[in-house]
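Q: My labmate handed me this sequence with no annotations at all. I'd like to see what the chain might look like in three dimensions before we decide whether it's worth expressing. Could you predict it?
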Amino acid sequence: MILQALHGYYERMSEDPDSGMPPYGTSLENISFALVLDGDGNLRGIEDLREQDGRKLRPRKMAVPAAVTRTSGVKANFCWDKAAYALGNDKNGAKDNAERFAAFKELLCSICEDLDDAGLLAIKRFLDSWDPEQAEKNVAAFLNWHDIAAANLVFRLEGTKGFIHNRLPIQKVWLTHCGKSDAAPRVQCLITGEQDVAQARVHTPIKGVAGGQTSGGYIVSYNASAFVSYDKDKADVGEISAFAYTTALNALLTRGSRQKITIGDATIVFWAECTSPAEDFLADLFDPSSQSSQPETTVDHQTAIKLHDLLQAIRSGKHAVDIVPDLDESVRFYVLALAPNAARLSIRFWEVDTVGGLLHKIGRHFRDLEIIRQYDNEPEFPPLWLLLRQTATLNKSENISPVLAGGVARAMLTGGQYPQSLLPAVLGRIRAEHAVTYYRAALIKAFLTRNKQLEVPVSLDPARTDRPYLLGRLFAVLEKAQEEAIPGAGATIKDRYLASASANPGQVFHMLLKNAANHTAKLRKDPEKKGMAFHYEAMMQDIISAFSDFPTTMASEEQGLFMIGYYHQRRDFFTKKSKEN
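A: Here is what I predict for the chain of 581 residues:
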């Protein structure tokens, strides 16, 4: 199913001349420089093709004759390659690259043996006269040798537009060469169902997966007899079909793709069965910008407002077409999550749904997360990466558990349960940092709502009688009384007893209530704070009267509800103070 969906995406994009999807026999590669040759094969210049990306120069993505797969040995590309092949020299010197230079020249001559083309003749004459030993000296006359030595190069004929590999006669002979597959077994393609097609012996590596090898990885491969069935050591995929699915996936994974997001160690790509606006805005749903943030342009501001309205609509259960009128919710949508696994890629999850179904599940995710914000400048729709950082040591992205990140992303997209490790991870960070933040409270609420089927309110619910919730509220009242009685204190009971009060309330609260009596007594002595003392004492009595005893221990979900009660009560104190001001 995955391969068929990718094959369909390639066919759809190939029909659009502006999509940039490379045709059969080519591949998108990182090209940095063009060697400019005259008709006699003399090097007349070196053109820098790199593009500015912030402060860095990055190679240009260019469709070139399909790259070979190099696992071992020497294999040259046609009309383009690394300096080691095209110039016979790199940082390792000419001697180590003599075989590569010879292979590059031999491939060119064997494919274009009888072709009479000015561009081809220029490359042949260049290779015949070029001395790899003098490469560094000759190249340094134009550009820095170290930049050239580590880059992919193409050729351009002086005085003409385009590159030599794009000249029509050269493209024709290359396609003829690609079609020579007499030696390949004839099979029925498992992607298209076509009979008697040449089997793809090696599939193009998939590049662009975060954390994967720079040479790429494979989602279809065999490397031992244990994985072979029906005496087949290769998958029955036709050459053209293999090219289509790998090209489509590499295009989705390319740098700057709007159909790719990275969460933890998983790289997630998505596409629709036919053209859909959802392909353009789905990535924004994972990282929605705050409506209050400062946009760079008016267009950015309008887009942010429209996205915010869309998120509000799907969170409340409304249809997305109310905000995006040209959206067809019945279109099939695909989501594929990949993770690196040595030379291969593992499938973290694969989800097939309609656009409407997917948006409904994303809306449910934000509905489960919805809780009153601690500060007004915090995002109403918290991005996934920001939520996951709340589960990591030192709040650093590199410390996020890959398994946890993938599980949360999957729950968001599929509507399934959140990982069981989510609640312990959040509680663990609260114990370590003594802080119940907006994001952590939102994660706890989402977990309890979806995994435990509990009804958790968005803001303070004074009528709620769950004992863990009431204990959390009581702890917040005790802390507030201490803060008012001892203003400017370096630490409060939260810093010493938050973890133990939530896990073992029976051992802690009796001592905390005893200390609270001292705090309210101190407040009563201050004429200006006397009313506070009576107010906090009344709150404590009302909360305590709603349950019979303090439990010895509480389970993790009860501790989560404790933190929600604590967060709600603390936020309510702040809200009331703001209204009074």
